[in-house]
């Protein structure tokens, strides 16, 4: 069974020409796919449709074997499919790193003790345990990116959606992020303007052109 299927997805923002005009995508367990295309082609829009933050005007989203149409259909999807936003500041909103990482598990019904255990495990796994009690908004760009990844991994998703994950990272942090992502078992959809990063993490490539996804 595919983890995610997009079938004939059409989408246009009000007053604008369509950005998606029959896009199709199938993602299986362990599969890693890069989506490329010029700015404005609809790559980020496509990711938001995958998790129900936007709804297509036509077409079908099937996640984990179930058609997803209403907002309630996507609650489960957002627990099982983690979206890493292009800008870390869009994803971090708690005073400290530990609180940000614990937020998702607490909302899944974990106790405070269980959530803090997850915090420590995830931070250690990606090598940022030393940031645990830091004030989030005082972190560097690279530190914020790693913390946003921790907030997503704390939910134990089956799929990672990565929207320009190296945005604003220096080379050292980019290498570290790549090492962490390569070590993970999840299926991934990657948007990145960096050809070397795509080749190292998700060499299978789809091009978004004229609103459709085609193999490179």
Automatic annotation (TrEMBL):
The keyword Heme does not apply. The keyword Transmembrane does not apply. It holds the Pfam family ABC_tran. InterPro entries: AAA+_ATPase, ABC_transporter-like_ATP-bd, ABC_transporter-like_CS, ABC_transpr_CbiO/EcfA_su, ECF_ABC_transporter_ATP-bd, P-loop_NTPase. Keywords: ATP-binding, Nucleotide-binding, Transport. Gene3D superfamilies: P-loop containing nucleotide triphosphate hydrolases. GO terms for molecular function: ATP binding. Residues 4-216 form the ABC transporter domain. Belongs to the ABC transporter superfamily. This is ABC transporter ATP-binding protein. It comes from Donghicola mangrovi.
């Amino acid at each position: 069974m595919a983890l995610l299927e997009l079938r004939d997805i059409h989408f246009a923002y009000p007053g604008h020409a369509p950005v998606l005009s029959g896009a199709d995508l199938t993602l299986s367990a362990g599969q890693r796919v890069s989506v490329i295309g010029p700015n404005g082609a609809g790559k980020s829009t496509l990711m938001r449709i995958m998790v129900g933050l936007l709804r297509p005007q036509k077409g079908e989203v099937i996640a984990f074997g179930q058609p997803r149409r209403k907002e309630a259909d996507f609650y489960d999807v957002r627990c099982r499919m983690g979206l890493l936003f292009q800008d870390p500041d869009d994803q971090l909103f708690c005073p400290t790193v530990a609180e940000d990482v614990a937020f998702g598990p607490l909302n899944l019904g974990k106790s405070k003790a269980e959530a803090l255990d997850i915090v420590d495990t995830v931070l250690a796994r990606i090598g940022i345990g030393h940031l645990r009690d830091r004030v989030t908004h005082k972190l560097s760009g690279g530190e914020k990116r790693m913390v946003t990844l921790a907030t997503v991994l704390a939910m134990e998703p089956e799929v990672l959606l990565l929207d320009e994950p190296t945005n604003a990272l220096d080379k050292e942090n980019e290498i570290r992020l790549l090492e962490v992502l390569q070590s993970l078992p999840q299926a991934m959809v990657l948007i990145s303007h960096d050809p070397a990063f795509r080749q190292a993490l998700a060499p299978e490539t789809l091009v978004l052109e004229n609103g459709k996804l085609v193999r490179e």
